[in-house]
Amino acid sequence: MWPDDLQNHTFLHTVYCQDGSPSVGLSEAYDEDQLFFFDFSQNTRVPRLPEFADWAQEQGDAPAILFDKEFCEWMIQQIGPKLDGKIPVSRGFPIAEVFTLKPLEFGKPNTLVCFVSNLFPPMLTVNWQHHSIPVEGFGPTFVSAVDGLSFQAFSYLNFTPEPSDIFSC
Length: 169
Hints:
Elements: E1 11-17, E2 24-30, E3 33-39, E4 44-47, H1 53-56, H2 62-78, H3 80-83, E5 95-100, E6 110-119, E7 128-130, E8 133-135, E9 142-146, E10 150-159, E11 167-168
Antiparallel strand pairs: 1-2, 2-3, 3-4, 5-6, 6-10, 7-8, 7-11, 9-10
Organism: Homo sapiens (Human)
Main location: membrane
Pfam families: C1-set (PF07654), MHC_II_alpha (PF00993)
């Protein structure tokens, strides 16, 4: 029996390839919330949130993902040169916002989130700074597709806030 108020949901399995780094990318999102990205160097899904770790182990579609990667590489080699100069290099400027995962309490562990929107093409390197000094030890950057052939990215940094802290990404 179907409920009377069926809701529409969207699962996005986005594969992108480009003449840059990363050359091939894959992200999976549900209702515009990224679940995973695929790390082609490790041939594994990487969950955006720890709650998705069990699902990330699923390998049933590995042959299809390998096909997508090979098809992307073929397109870059065969079709890419014919489209040179015909596809925009970028669309505007990326916008970075920094916020905390939990409400800010000085002296209590928290996580900073760097959210980058208006991203096209999906090439970026996120670096964190604390008082203008580079910070090491932050997690991977998660890139996902959004409507309109645009991308967004998230980077996370665990920290314990102090009143004088200044962070940037």
